[in-house]
Write a structure and sequence with these properties.
The complex is a heterotrimer of chains A (445), B (385) and C (280). With 445 residues, chain A is α/β, with parallel strands linked by helices. Chain A has helices spanning 20-36, 50-57, 65-75, 78-87, 96-111, 138-146, 172-195, 201-224, 234-246, 251-270, 295-301, 327-349, 358-366, 382-385, 387-398, 417-440, and strands at 41-44, 61-63, 128-132, 154-157, 280-285, 304-309, 371-377, 402-407. Chain A contains 16 helices and eight strands. In chain A, strand 1 (41-44), helix 2 (50-57) and strand 2 form a beta-alpha-beta unit. With 385 residues, chain B is α/β, with parallel strands linked by helices. With 280 residues, chain C is an alpha/beta fold. Chain C folds into two domains: 5-83 and 243-263, Nucleotidyltransferase, domain 5, CATH 3.30.420.40; 95-231, ATPase, nucleotide binding domain (Nucleotidyltransferase, domain 5, 2-Layer Sandwich), CATH 3.30.420. In chain C, strand 2 (15-21) and strand 3 (25-32) form a beta hairpin. In chain C, helix 2 (81-92) packs across helix 8, helix 3 runs parallel beside helix 5 (166-178) and helix 6 (183-203) crosses helix 7 (221-231). The chains are: A alpha/beta (445), B alpha/beta (385), C alpha/beta (280). Chains in contact: A-B, A-C, B-C. At the A-B interface, helix 6, strand 4, helix 7, helix 14 and helix 15 of A face helix 5, helix 6 and helix 14 of B. The structure holds adenosine-5'-diphosphate (ADP) and iron/sulfur cluster.
């Protein structure tokens, strides 16, 4: 917010993160240019890469309304768009990103053009919309509902629910992959019919190769963060996740992660942390308060370093690819893997199994965290649902305490930084106490 | 008191008022009770394994005191209430619990349930959201997994003939339910909306064949009793999220209106479609549960235009409204339900197009705001009149 | 309908209003519903009857509306305030398309087409955005509620009130006062916030036709101005904005009687006895 006082900086941010902003701007500009030049434009849900590469290979430029939600939230425009969405008769408890975007779309429809005050140049009218079955119901209901405004085809790539078979060797995983491949094949058929051309699988493979390199580097960067002190703060993760999410096909993304890797590696070798002194190592779940990120500076001032976060946004860990896989199999295997890799990891390390909250368990041990900060979101059930359960498990199993802060991804009036800071002091006592308890019980940290 | 001496309406009322009553009796007789959630776990497979299915619903009358330590308060209150009741031991007669991927909240809540309750048997049925050819294959695979899990648990195999037999038993009940609904095509209806919901809920808390006998008794009683619900000016259809108690309908029917038809999963959604006879009976089951149940949790392939899409998504409601002589539609949902929430503006637009008044009513799964809801319904009835 | 009398009584959370109608308004009384008067709806009625110079027995039909309508034992029929406000507004403004009503404890929007209510929206869940909210703040500021409107028109820099909850907004106001911000700027900010809420609510109806602003809060000139600036068009106000509900009730009663006479059906009426009305 403009009227906010300048906060003093205590987080040692990465220099290389500065490359990201122009990339994001480019992403939005490309969307508008594509529409102006009459090239196909998609409004797309985050689909964990499988749909993106296929669309790119078909010459489609995707833009991502969920990401636009974060943009509008941090520029203050979201309130206006959400009010429009409410006026359209959508219930107010729905996902903040979706309310923002539905309001935006209704406004654009009314004006007959991109609203002149739309942040980052706005998102032009789409050729089609791509929903996703991954993560929550909102992500396909939202576009289905938007068809009332933009009568363009709506496609949804469906997905199995990943985490419910804890037996990593079960046949069901291969079956699920086959299903996902079929989903991609159907999607390609849809695109070919819509755009009247054939897909170039070689191009898909080129993009995929770039993507696999991005994954590798991005994964290694996050591995380096296990070092004490942790060389990279969650704030940099949240900045850097955007290209790793939306632009993995792009050589620029690869170049970015090279530079980030070098910087983080150098810090690790020199024993430089993102917060000095690193008094507490924290894990953050799930989505941050985009509009109040500066608030982490205040916590850094207290020696809180955020070392791992946002499980839904991390890259898949490296896996050995099956020889004989088709390009589509290989592509979708990554999307699948990012969701089940933690189960395999648990098996390899002989950890107990905790279903969908396995991530947090694994990470708490691997990153040796002192505390778990949960951010319950007023308008996102999916990112909030597991939090109390995960907190219970971490406390019971690993003696890692947690602190909840209430907020929202878009509506910043819900978030009360002063209250959190007040609670932070008491939470430090709890973290100190549990540190002792862990020692007593013989845990690794 | 036992249910043995009760019949028809009286029996439905008794079981509605004490949902676990029949289940506890059966358990004492040595029967095994399988809890399930929503309308998606295929009941044919459950009864085929000699389990008595019991629909877990939660209750609007029970304050949530235990579940909040495991589930956040911004999720579906029906789900919160269900877990809360379970944690308080209200479903302690259940041997197992099955959920399906009906909605995102259910996918998540079943794992918390498993962690907190640790019943001898737990199963989650992964289920596609989209209906296309490969979705059917995928769903079939997951149902076979479910069948195998129950077989492994009980040590007994479920064969084709038995599944076919179960399909007949369930289809018979579905036919009886449709017959029951026919009684409300009359004017005045022979059954009130509140009575109907009571019966639906009772049916889901008792063995299928016993429920069918009860249905036959009720139909006879309703046809022969003189004191039906009487004349009223307005006939309403109710759409939306599940109702676990009759109070909302009772409130509506305390005004000058009958609820004569519904599109909720403790009503038509649960019973309307039959399972088709197919050579592999699982194929019929797959088709019915994936594509014949009309719930907003399902994404149907989009047709060429929005108009056509609305017709294919909502056309059945037009048919209901015509056949049941409906004057207006009450769209209702609990707060925090996403699948129903996103549907509302399109539905309102659809009803406007076909010239039926519709109003959206959102409630928070408590009757605390009943006066305000009632005021809205009254105003809506005045608009229709 | 010569020589026939119709009464409309609107029992709101703060005010009770009565209209006696017979080819024009014969009696019109507004009295508080307030704590000590809660059971005195019959007294307001008696005042109105005295104005009209008729005994209660002479009234042909009585319609009650408002939140307290169920508790009026001498009414022949209860009708919601939605229908009554709309009817009352149409009497004064035949071209009305949208009604925005902000009363003591709720705010509502009503859409009218072809002389009928076609849709409505309501906020009755919390005090924020209602007249009650303004009363609470007026008290905090030590300002008479009647002076809020004129004072706010003097504002130079209206403040931004970010809280939507009455209690938090009150705290916000207190802290702004202590910062030395002029009272009129604070009041103007409050009006802005409430008008914004009402506008967003009414937008759900896709505002069309003339907009009429009713309810006690329409007496507040500052609110009228704030609402107009949100709407981007003028709003119409009745000479007595409190009275539309009772007016509509009387007129709807008249129409019911007329319809019954046309069709030759008898219409049920209560015994004409003014018993105490227990409102709460
Ligand atoms: N003269 C006035 N000037 C400004 N505001 C007023 C005035 N009279 C009443 N009000 C406002 O109107 C509200 C009452 O409105 P009313 O429509 O009578 O509500 P209800 O119908 O719920 O009783 C009060 O809370 C107050 O804020
Ligand atoms: S009411 Fe909605 S959120 Fe609740 S279980 Fe049903 S579909 Fe899910």
């Amino acid at each position: 917010m403009a009227d906010k006082e300048k906060t003093k900086k205590f987080i040692n941010r990465l220099k290389s993160r500065n490359i990201v902003r122009p990339m994001v701007n480019k992403m939005y500009a490309e969307g508008v240019t594509a529409a102006n030049e009459g090239r196909p434009l998609a409004w797309s849900m985050v689909n964990w890469w499988e749909g993106d590469i296929v669309m790119r290979a078909m010459g489609v430029t995707p833009v991502y309304p969920e990401n636009y939600g974060t943009v509008c939230a941090s520029t203050g425009m979201a309130q206006k768009y959400q009010a429009i969405c409410d006026a359209e008769g959508f219930p107010t408890h729905l996902c903040g990103y979706s309310r923002n975007h539905i309001g935006y779309a209704a406004e654009m429809k009314k004006l007959g053009k991109i609203p002149p005050d739309a942040p980052l140049g706005g998102m032009a009218e789409p050729t089609f919309m791509l929903g996703s079955g991954i993560a929550c119901d909102t992500r396909f209901k939202w576009f289905q509902a938007l068809r009332q405004y933009y009568d363009v085809p709506v496609w949804t790539i469906d997905t199995p629910s990943y985490d419910h078979t804890e037996d990593i060797d079960s046949d069901i995983h291969e079956h699920n992959i086959r299903h996902k491949v079929k989903e991609l094949e159907r999607f390609i058929e849809f695109l070919e019919n819509l755009l009247g051309k054939k897909i170039d699988m070689d191009l898909v493979e080129d993009y995929l190769e770039n993507q696999e390199k991005v994954f590798q580097l991005w994964w290694e960067i996050n591995e380096l963060r296990k070092a004490k002190p942790c060389p990279m703060h969650s704030r940099d993760f949240w900045t850097l996740m955007v290209p790793g999410y939306y632009m993995t096909y792009d050589k620029d993304a690869l170049n970015l992660y090279h530079q980030v890797y070098e910087e983080v590696k150098a810090r690790t070798d020199a024993g430089i942390g993102a917060v000095t002194p690193e008094k507490y190592r924290l894990m953050f779940a799930e989505l941050p308060p985009w509009h109040s990120l500066d608030f982490f500076e205040k916590l850094a001032e207290r020696g809180w370093n955020f070392v791992v976060e946002s499980q839904g946004y991390h890259p898949p860990e490296p896996m050995s690819l099956k020889t004989g896989d088709s390009v589509l199999e290989r592509l979708t295997r990554w999307t699948y893997w990012v969701n089940v890799g933690h189960i395999r990891k648990a098996k390899e390390k002989n950890y107990p199994l905790f279903g969908p909250v396995q991530y947090y368990y694994n990470w708490a041990r691997e990153y040796q965290v002192d505390g778990f900060i949960t951010h319950s979101l007023l308008s996102c059930r999916t990112a909030t649902f597991w939090l109390p359960h995960a907190a219970n498990i971490l406390k019971e199993e690993l003696l890692v305490p947690s602190m909840n802060m209430e907020g929202d991804i878009v509506d910043f009036t819900v978030f009360d930084p002063d209250l959190v800071l007040k609670n932070a002091e008491a939470f430090e006592e709890s973290m100190d106490y549990h540190r002792g308890e862990r020692k007593r019980k013989g845990l690794e940290w | 008191m036992t249910t043995a001496s009760l019949h028809g309406f009286a029996k439905a009322r008794k079981i509605y008022e004490d949902r676990g009553l029949r289940a506890r009796e059966l358990k004492a007789e040595g029967k095994k009770i399988m809890g399930y959630y929503c309308s998606y776990p295929p009941l044919e497979l459950i009864t085929g394994m000699d389990f008595v299915p019991f629909r877990v619903q939660g209750s609007i009358n029970e304050a949530i005191t235990k579940a909040d330590s495991s589930i956040p308060t911004i999720v579906c209150p029906i789900i919160r209430s269900s877990l809360d009741m379970a944690m308080k031991g209200k479903y302690d007669f259940m041997e197992g619990f099955v959920t399906a991927h009906s909605c995102d909240c259910q996918e998540k809540f079943c794992r918390i349930w498993e962690h907190e309750l640790k019943l001898p048997f737990h199963h989650y049925i992964d289920m596609p959201h989209v209906v296309r050819e490969n979705s059917f294959e995928q769903f079939k695979e997951k149902l076979i997994m479910f069948q195998k899990a129950m077989e492994a648990y009980t040590g007994r195999a479920l064969d084709r003939e038995r599944i076919q037999q179960e399909i007949r038993v369930h289809n018979r009940q579905r036919a009886l339910v449709r017959k029951l609904y026919d009684l409300r095509k009359e004017n005045p209806p022979l059954l009130s909306g509140a009575e109907n919901l009571e019966i639906m809920i009772a049916l889901m808390c008792m063995p299928i064949e016993e429920g069918s006998i009860m249905l036959e008794e009720i139909i006879q009683e309703a046809l022969s009793r003189g004191n039906g619900p009487g004349e009223k000016d307005t006939r309403l259809m109710l759409w939306g999220s599940p109702l676990t108690e009759t109070n909302l309908i009772q409130m509506i029917e305390s005004l000058n209106a009958h609820v004569v038809m519904d599109d909720i999963c403790v009503g038509t959604r649960h019973y309307w479609a039959d399972v088709e006879a197919t050579s592999d009976p699982m194929d019929g089951i797959v088709k019915r549960y994936l594509s014949e149940i009309k719930c907003p949790r399902t994404f149907r392939e989009s047709s060429s235009t929005f108009e056509e899409e609305m017709e294919s998504r909502f056309g059945y409601l037009k048919d209901f409204a015509r056949d049941w002589h409906v004057d207006g539609i009450l769209l209702q949902s609990v707060k925090y339900c996403d699948t129903h929430g996103y549907e509302v503006p399109a539905l309102k637009a659809y009803f406007e197009k076909i010239g039926l008044p519709a109003m959206y009513l959102e409630h928070e799964y408590t009757m605390a705001a009943e006066a305000q809801l009632k005021n809205r319904v009254e105003a809506f009835l005045e608009i229709i009149a | 309908m010569k020589g026939k009398y119709f009464a409309g009584i609107d029992i709101g959370s703060t005010m009770t209003k009565v209209i006696i109608y017979s080819e024009g308004i014969r009696g019109q009384v507004i009295g508080p519903t307030g704590p000590e008067h809660r059971h005195l709806a019959n007294i307001v009625m008696e005042d109105a009857l005295a104005q009209a110079r008729i005994p209660f027995e002479a009234v042909d039909y009585v319609v009650a509306t408002g939140y307290g309508r169920i508790n009026v034992p001498f009414a022949d029929k209860q009708i919601t305030e939605i229908s009554c406000h709309a009817r009352g507004v149409l009497h004064f403004f035949p071209n009305a398309g949208t009604v925005i009503d902000i009363g003591g404890q709720d705010a509502k929007g009503i859409k009218i087409a072809n002389n009928r209510v076609v849709d409505f929206v309501m906020n009755d869940k919390c005090a924020a955005g209602t007249g009650r909210f303004l009363e609470v703040i007026a008290e905090t500021l030590g300002v008479n509620i009647k002076d809020m409107g004129p004072l706010s028109l003097k504002a130079r820099n209206k403040v931004k009130i970010s809280s939507i909850c009455t209690i938090f907004a009150e705290q916000e106001v207190v802290s702004q006062l202590s910062e030395g911000i002029p009272v009129e700027d604070i009041i103007a900010g409050l009006h802005e916030a409430i008008a914004g809420r009402a506008f967003r609510m009414a937008s759900k109806l896709k505002i069309e036709g003339d907009v009429v602003f009713t309810g006690g809060v329409a007496k507040n000139t500052g609110m009228v101005k704030a609402l107009e600036s949100h709407l981007g068009r003028p709003v119409y106000i009745c000479r007595e904005p409190l009275i539309t509900g009772a007016m509509g009730a009387a007129l709807l009663g008249k129409e019911l009687v007329e319809k019954a006479m046309e069709s030759g059906k008898a219409i049920k009426i209560k015994e004409r006895k003014l018993t105490t009305a227990r409102v709460f």
